[in-house]
Known about the structure:
The protein has a single domain (2-217), classed as Rossmann fold (3-Layer(aba) Sandwich). Helices cover 30% and strands 16% of the residues. The protein has helices at 2-12, 42-53, 90-101, 115-125, 198-217; strands spanning 26-28, 63-65, 77-82, 105-110, 132-133, 163-169, 172-179.
Amino acid sequence: MRNWIFGLLILIGLTSFKTDYSFQIAKLKYSGGGDWYGNRTALPNLASFCNKNLGTNIDVQDANVEPNSPDIFNYPFVYMTGHGNVVFTDKDAENLRKYLLAGGFLHIDDNYGLDPFVRPQMKKVFPELDFVELPFSHPVYHQKFDFPNGLPKIHEHDGKPPRGYGLLYEGRLVCFYDTECDLGNGWEDAGIYPGDSEETRQKALKMGANLIQYAFTR
């Protein structure tokens, strides 16, 4: 049923996701030994925030999905995170490409250390595309919440500014990739990172809500 609903919503181009159906968002369970399972409380908290502030009806229980699984088409929004190695098989890359071309959306959140591994693997998915840095004028920064200076900085690490990149297929953003930001860490339960203020956490949730809104309504 969800596969059919997802396809229909893409086909008719709904501008709102207020619906009687409950959708899930999923975390990508990739191979290679990297900690794909990180940020355990992030997606449930983001779903709750979106339901409250966007009027969505997202299931607050998130799912895990493998890139080569047909189940990936059940989820309009897939989240990927980690610190280490990523490996996509040819089947993974082929299925993930089909998912994104069919209207799915992938958010890659570099949890610090993911970058050198995920870029070559995404090249398997879209050999013809490179990540491009999105201008601050891009609609993803101007949905329900306005971020005129782009991504908020959640964790400092080495002090570099946060960067937001995208894969654009025929002009359509199919994958958003944040680095030097740790956006998903800001969605986690308050207190997991004692140094994070509630103001910082709210900025992270608002930017996450923008990604959800963009993915659901573009």
